[in-house]
Protein: S-adenosylmethionine:tRNA ribosyltransferase-isomerase
Organism: Oleiagrimonas soli
Amino acid sequence: MKKSDFHFDLPQRLIAQAPLAERSASRMLVLDVPHKRWQDSGVRALPDFLREGDLLVFNDTRVLPARLFGRKETGGAVEILLERVTGAHEARAQMRVSKKPAAGSRILLDDGTPVEVLGREDAFFRLRFDTDEPLEKVLLRVGHMPLPPYIERADSAEDAERYQTVFAREPGAVAAPTAGLHFDDALLEALRARGVDSGYVTLHVGAGTFQPMRAERIEDHHMHREWLNVGAQLIEKIHRTRAAGGRVIAVGTTVVRALESATVEGELRPFAGETQIFIFPGYRITSIDGLLTNFHLPESTLLMLVSALAGREFMLDAYRHAVEAEYRFFSYGDAMLILPQGV
């Protein structure tokens, strides 16, 4: 199977550049997979498509202000995007700079904090922040929210709140689990009133999620590593839900990747550690019964994941409809609810 098998034409104007005034005001395309049909709806109608006894699983990761600006000792401007924090004062990062710095060179952040370049690992630099402060405190003081590269503007004060879910509590991500951005307190309360339960995984989304797939043959692609935790309490909830006839609905592809990474020989088990799982058509997803997700980039690994759940041709047909109906795409865009068992 080729990367180009997952191409679709997307007008630039449909890429959402800012959030809507209200989180839950987004549109939602609902896919009835068995009957190969869809309907246009809205995120606020999500409770109407769920049943009493269903379980929504969210990713409670919290986005760090992981974009930093500074200068090399020689004076050249540097933009740093952390990929992941690896210690109290160390991190892996991408760097935008005119000439790549060598190991041992230093960068001064805008507030004067010195950063030493320890070396390189593939496309990433290993950095050490020479300060007594924990790295998270440095980021909170001088960092910017790491908006995706397709949002063509600088981050604002509004993004500090809106590029973060209302249930974010475990710091470590450098990109938001964007399906969760649609939920506000009113929608969560409507879901509780419907009898829908909730649970959480943690998967710290890395900057590698925005790296384009370079291999044309998708089997040759290697995913970036991300850290996750699927706890015993959630697994118990999932077992109870399914035993009672309820459905497990993942909120976001990160939840699918976390739960599938914690599935061993068909059995969901507690797991904390790294994953490089790559889900594409031919892979059978067993840990969930539905998925709420945003619209993804053409030829991306996330489009391949949702195609594994709903079928490539049907998914691309639905994407073409979304383009024609002018849905908003990507992180601040609209949502899609995929129901493999039907509406």
